[in-house]
Amino acid sequence: xxxxxxxxxxxxxxxxxxxxxxxxxxxxxxxxxxxxxxxxxxxxxxxxxxxxxxxxxxxxxxxxxxxxxxxxxxxxxxxxxxxxxxxxxxxxxxxxxxxxxxxxxxxxxxxxxxxxxxxxxxxxxxxxxxxxxxxxxxxxxxxxxxxxxxxxxxxxxxxxxxxxxxxxxxxxxxxxxxxxxxxxxxxxxxxxxxxxxxxxxxxxxxxxxxxxxxxxxxxxxxxxxxxxxxxxxxxxxxxxxxxxxxxxxxxxxxxxxxxxxxxxxxxxxxxxxxxxxxxxxxxxxxxxxx
Length: 290
Prior knowledge:
Number of domains: 2
Order of helices and strands: HHHHHHHEEEEEE
Largest sheet: 3 strands, antiparallel
Oligomer: single chain
Shape: elongated
Number of helices: 7
């Protein structure tokens, strides 16, 4: 059963990927992994919508199913709404044609091999078998969706724990550096000249200081928490491109966040999979509007 369902999902993913390549190759993200996830979401979401709404809408349940599929293509494959509607229409047309062809072949095969007395039993058994397989497929898709949600929740928890640990280590290191005592002069040696002593005891200015603003006001941790990754796009010159707070940035690019009267800037230093590494650059006062 699992092999049949996997083959069905791969078949649907290949159909959607082919349609994206034909009609939206210049703008769409038709990587196989992305299209496969969109296909799984389409099959699971459409099955759930059909189970919940068929009793109320009947055959018109195809309308929310159609627009849900189109929304997934627009949201995760980066196609426009007109092209998304066209690709969704062709996808359902091809899907219906394939299913009708399969049904025609199955019933024609049964009519050829069985006599009239056994046709009813054969058709009924085939119908019951298809219904059971369909229900099993819906159950497996729902279980797969739940596993994907649990995995995503686990990754989010691990990421939050890693960020909290990193912040705690940074604060501990900063406190240790601040609390480091000054070395006492060695006995028997003459005192250093005043200028040299003052140079050795004067603390270095904090990095990324803002003129006219106290260093404590540059809250990099809170400002960094405002960075929101909206989506990803592949195929740019520097590899994968991220949409961060409505700003498109790739490796080496800069983004900024306005927080508490200051503008904080970061550089995207590297990408480990889908985990960005941000390098703080500067914090400047937001100029007053005329």
